[in-house]
Amino acid sequence: MKTTKFTVKGTHCIACKNLIEEICREIDGIASCNVDFKTGMTIIEHNEKLNLGIVKKEIESLGIYKVQSL
Amino acid sequence: MAKKNYKIKGMHCHACEVLMERRFRKISGVKKVEADYATGIVKVTYDSEPSVLELNNSIKDAGYSVVIEDEINRGSKGADEQEKTDYLEVVMYFIIVLGIYAALKPIGILPHLSLTDNMSYGFIFLLGIVAAFSTCLAVSGGLLLAVAAKYNEMHSSLTGWQKFKPNIYFNIGRILSYTFFGFVIGAFGSVLTLSPFGSGVLTIIVSIVMVLLGFQLLNLFPWLRRFQPKMPKFIGHKVHDISSMESKSAPFMLGAGTFFLPCGFTMALQLYVLSKGSAVVGALAMLAFSLGTLPTLASLGVISSFVKGSLQKDFLKFAGVIVILMGLFNIISGLTLVGLDTGDFSTGSNLLSTPGSKAISSAPKPYLKQAPKGTANLELLPIADGKQIARMRVNGLEYEPANFKVRQGVPVEWQVDASDASGCAHVLIMPKLKISRYLSGDKLNIITFTPTEAGNYPFSCSMGMTTLGASFVVVQDTT
Known about the structure:
Helix content of chain A: 25-40%
Oligomer: heterodimer
Low-confidence stretches of chain B: 70-85, 107-112, 227-245, 342-373
Largest sheet of chain B: 5 strands, mixed
Number of helices of chain B: 14
Radius of gyration of chain B: 26 Å
Helix content of chain B: 40-55%
Distance between the termini of chain B: 91 Å
Shape of chain B: elongated
CATH topology of chain A: Alpha-Beta Plaits
Number of strands of chain A: 4
Number of strands of chain B: 15
Radius of gyration of chain A: 11 Å
Largest interface: A-B, 15 and 20 residues
Number of helices of chain A: 2
CATH architecture of chain A: 2-Layer Sandwich
Distance between the termini of chain A: 17 Å
């Protein structure tokens, strides 16, 4: 298990938090996800094999957010 | 395949839309989902119709709910009628509010409490209570109401107490900032008070925000909702933080900021504190005043936080109507402060014109021969000791007389008796000559100025609430 932190730009409410957490949990290899919508700080727990590029792509595919520092 | 529209309560942004679509799509039988947060409608295309309970269960943990009564089928007559009754309802609310206002106005809910030169703190506290029912409420209260109502609408699942919490921070912020700035003004003078022009501009901005929020509350123009999230992200982030009052600091700052909002009583007090020149007196006077306004503002918060169900819906509608009316009213006051000749407003013809037409309305009107409406028959003021003496009484919010005609280049001595002035009428401003004076209720106030250019010089109280069209007409001396 590994923990990765990154920032999601564009989050502003509980709905954003729920949405991003929901998307992350559906990605194979991610065990948990926590988003602070005020800062955009996102913490995921995942296995070693996870391709972080997929996480970025999934979140950005919504067209609302930008993933930074990943 | 069939289609059905569901009204969802709680959606307010793009993320909400996506969340709805994802949740609903997981329900078996559902083929396609399209959500629109601006209208609150989710279109569901399905093979087998999902039950409302199923839909509701899939979203309720995130704070949304399916509105059952308002379940509408697309394109059906039902939807049209629904819209129409909504508009009728809004018109009805407008009529009720205006009716209440018209009924109360002649009774005069505003007691004529007068500011004097030596006021006890108990008296200032009383003044605060009165102020909260009048001009102050128009801006601070209106803003609080608008933001609180918007917040409650967006977070309708919160408990009353949770909704009320931001109100506490708002009021703490208010009281602390009043005390602090009272101290500063007492100690350092007028550095921090806004010029009439500055507060005029501020009034207009705040009023426009209020009107927009009011329209949103009434849901009159669904497209208006799009203004909110489509702002540039860096601004949007901040604005949202403040308007949604998620954090403690945002409502606190909002409350603290109300010190700068134009409130006739606050302005009069600011000038009063200024004249005292003492930090302690300033701080205590402002503290007493803000404590006086507390009961009203706090009860506004209680009402907006704890009403439930259909009552809450009514409250939001009423709040929307009141906020819009206050906003429109304040815009006119703001224009007066900025220096626009509101004599034009009293005729009503220019009410709907945009601020852009200001240049036209203040341009010389040759057909009026220098004298605006109502001043054509004015006599020139007599000259005594080389001065033109203008005597004026302030009765409540009325100037008696309200119009003077003077010669260009001759000093004017303006003697103002403000012993019966109420509220903001204790501050007299004339934007063109940058005159801003606190009128004492104890003695005759004397303002002297020398008009160097011919023209119309409007004056009013600091809120622009006094006699419309009050002005000095300056003419060239032809004799």
